[in-house]
Amino acid sequence: MTMKKIFGLMFASMAMFLMTSCNPAELGESWDLYIDDIYTVNKHAVVPEFSDTFIMVSNMEGQQLKTGDRARMVLRYFYDSSTGKKPEYSIYKVYDIIPTHNLDTIATIDPLVYNAPFKQLEFYEFFDRYAYPVWVWNNCQNINVSYYGLKPGAQFAMAVKGVDKEYLELELFAKATRSNDDITTVFLTYDLSNAGDFLTQEQKRSVESYDTLKTRIYLNREIKDEKGNASIEKINFIGGKLANPFKK
After folding, report:
1. How far is C-alpha 164 from the chain's CA centre?
2. pLDDT digits (tens, 9 = 90+) for 114-159
3. Facing residues of 135 across strands?
4. Any alpha helices (H) in the chain, and if so which ranges?
5. Number of C-beta neighbours around residue 49 at 10 A
6. What is the pLDDT of residues 58-68, one digit of tens each?
């Protein structure tokens, strides 16, 4: 299934949730809906992921949010036709403000330190649907992944490896304290806007004929055989697609 179809199904499921959440009232109709998503803040408005639609919210002044923040939150949409008031969006709950990290070079990452293995990609869970584990939006690479290690003190780095045909190649590293077989899931976002700073002029010229670039992400995954013996393998997968900043 293509990424476009997956997100189409995702938003279709959200639409069904919204429609089935409508409740008729005795003197008219009322809607009291709760929409769980990732939003980017712009003054008194928020913009949902994969959208360019601004949603004005009534209670932004009471939130610890500022323009540019990207957060997982729940919006409340309320409308009661019997009151004659306009429909209103408000922020019901803020789960997390999602930081955007910078890219690194392979040379700056010590593989003996950033050596915690990953387990697998994990679907990103909202209360009414799931999002695919990796995507690119607004020149940011997003990945939801589990690793073997504890959450406290864990650090991550994404490095630019180079290019190959229409692929911008990246590698994800983890530094974490391991305790037994503790598994933690983390959602990470990396800014791709300066990826060209880590490429040579020759590498940039090699991809300038493509309209779009795809990201390919490498990481070390731990696997176990039928006897429970663990080993590390390097895997790769497609992380998303973005407009080619090097196109001529």
Report:
1. 24
2. 999 999 999 999 999 999 999 999 999 999 999 999 999 999 999 9
3. 142
4. 3-20, 201-206
5. 16
6. 999 989 999 99
